[in-house]
Give the backbone structure.
Amino acid sequence: MIDRETLLEVFDIAERRRNERRRFIKMAGTAVAATAGASMLAACGNDDDQYAPPVTPTPTPTSTAGLPAGDVDVLNFALNLEYLEANYYTFAAFGSGINSTVQTGTGTQGTVTGGAKVPFADASVAAYAREIAADENQHVAFLRQQLGSSAVAMPAINIDGGANGAFTAAARAAGVVGATGTFNPYASDENWLLGGMLLSDVGVTAYKGSASLISNKVILDAAAGILAVEAYHSGLLRTLLYRKGLAMPALRTNADLISNARDTVDNGFDDDQGISPTTINGGAASNIVPADSNGIVFGRTAGDVLNVAYLNAGAVSSGGFFPAGVNGNIKTSTAA
């Protein structure tokens, strides 16, 4: 578990997010919004469940009786992805995964393979990592609070940086390393940024692709808020990669290779974009946002998201970052 000094630091990072969510609750005008807002407050007020040993009781799960079954499925699908991101960023920032009290639920509970604290050379990058870790842990807590007893357990997750790790498999498929090479996202600032880009970009497109499937307006509003946070994370990581890539061209090339590999496995229409500069009105321009001609970020279906997570272009139910698959009703990737 994370030590007490680190806990205090994480809580400081998260304080303004709790205040923002409380403001949302106060602004909710309908009875439905008020009910959901109370759940949000409960989720945000129990940071000990995210980072500390269980010195206080876990919040009593709320009922999902008022949520359509389809919304429950979408939220559980998102929860699987948040388990993955939260563990990656929490290990990188603090050297351990998410707290055991937020891993239980329906389905088969798994363990995390891999994960390590990054020896950050740049203090600002380390600070970004801690903030992102705090956000992702809060996403896990929030989704679990909304789902209550319907929340799925954390599935088996592979975030290892060794020869048998999902990051290495992804890097080999992308051509970032050779057929026998390894990719350790915890080895350096730059490797951590590449690993984060691989996951965060997909998180943005997952929330965008699922938005139209959510019926409850309060949950849709909250999902839009999470999408915005994921987009901030993705934009930050892509910006750092772009800037560092000016002095390290190979870094920018590797980011582009990762983007191309995602497009290969998700059976999409070449929507994914790397970070190499483009030209606008005859002048060089960055490529921070993977948007279409209307300036709108593209979305992935749940099946396409799982193609990337499973590192497989076919219709499968496990692999890659989820070696035993995900929990819930949405679990199969899209057929090639």
Confidence is low (pLDDT under 50) at residues 20-63. The CA atoms of residues 67 and 205 lie 23 Å apart.
